[in-house]
């Protein structure tokens, strides 16, 4: 099981066995890990989708779409192991980048 991926991380979850991120074999979703379902079989991450690519083409995003991706390191058929989810950016890194952005102070007028 992959313990490196945590709630709040931005991840890419690949469909099928390809790890291409462009071209006709690129099939994946990107999003933010919202929760873990450890009591389910298989154990999985719930990901709020922010990007969908199928066949190398970006698809229209459905508002509120979520996917359930199995944890990495679980046994699959024919002796294979799940490994379709990769971390793109840690939650802490995303938060630090957001906080570091220069922001103009709000002017409140009464």
Please outline what is shown here.
By secondary structure, the chain is mainly β. 9% of the residues lie in helices and 36% in strands.
Radius of gyration: 17 Å
Number of helices: 1
Shape: globular
Whole-number total of structural domains = 1
Number of E strands: 6
Uncertain parts: none
Query: Structural class per helix/strand content?
Result: mainly beta
What is the distance, rounded to the nearest whole angstrom, between the alpha carbons of the first and last residues?
A: 56 Å
Order of helices and strands: EEEEEEH
Q: Largest sheet, described in full?
A: 6 strands, antiparallel
Mean pLDDT: 85
How much beta, percentage-wise? 35-45%
User: How helical, in percent, are the residues?
Assistant: under 10%
Give your account of this protein's structure:
With 110 residues, this protein is mainly beta. Helix content is 9%, strand content 36%. Strands 1, 2, 3, 4, 5 and 6 form a six-stranded antiparallel β-sheet that branches. The longest helix is centred in the C-terminal third of the chain and has 10 residues. The protein is globular. The mean pLDDT is 85.
List the helices and strands and how they pair.
Layout: E1 10-14, E2 27-37, E3 44-54, E4 57-59, E5 66-70, E6 85-89, H1 91-100
Antiparallel strand pairs: 1-2, 1-6, 2-3, 3-4, 3-5
Question: Which descriptors apply to this entry?
Answer:
mainly beta; single chain
